[in-house]
Design a protein that fits this description.
About 20% of the residues lie in helices and about 30% in strands. It is built from five helices and eleven strands. A five-stranded antiparallel beta sheet has the order 6-3-4-5-7. It has a four-stranded mixed beta sheet with strand order 8-9-10-11. A two-stranded antiparallel ribbon has the order 1-2. β1 (about 1-5) and β2 form a beta hairpin.
Amino acid sequence: MQHITISAPGGPEVLRLQEALIPEPAAHQVLVRVEAAGVNRPDVLLRQGKYRGSGDVAGTVPGLEIAGRVEQCGAAVTRWQPGDAVCALLAAGGYAEYAVVDAGHCLPVPEGWSMTEAASLPETVFTVWHNVFQRGALQPGETLLVHGGSSGIGITAIQLAHALGSRVATTAGSTGKCEALRSLGPMWSLTTSRPTLSRY
């Protein structure tokens, strides 16, 4: 298979296309034939050698989120079958034709979504679900304050909170961004560049 590796910390020019063996999934993993990969800020920071003290990144394959079809399942995997369309969150390795990922870090590709769209889903959904609903224990009827509501994480938090019955207040960097968020249903919006509170 082919994958993209980082030859040394730096700009986009340090990325190299290389040949590699197709990885084998461990018992709790699935092998995914990658059709699309997300590009996230941590991928850029990793390439620069600045992600969590990553420094020596030569040979690292970036890529935190992917979408594709399951090719093979580890012996302990029961949720997925070969051929299933999934999107997944992984620590690294998504910029490749094949990637192994923990079966518990996969989500089904939503009906009607392209693989490109699905590859943008795992990072934000897992981040919001863990922080807002598992750790924060947001309940229906409670109010969630989302700073940076027009970001990927912000938009996902607003949508999930509303879908599960919570009220939302949000901040954004401009009046235009606050207006764009109206379609997601926030009840209150504050422009941080020139504070103006709007109620929707």
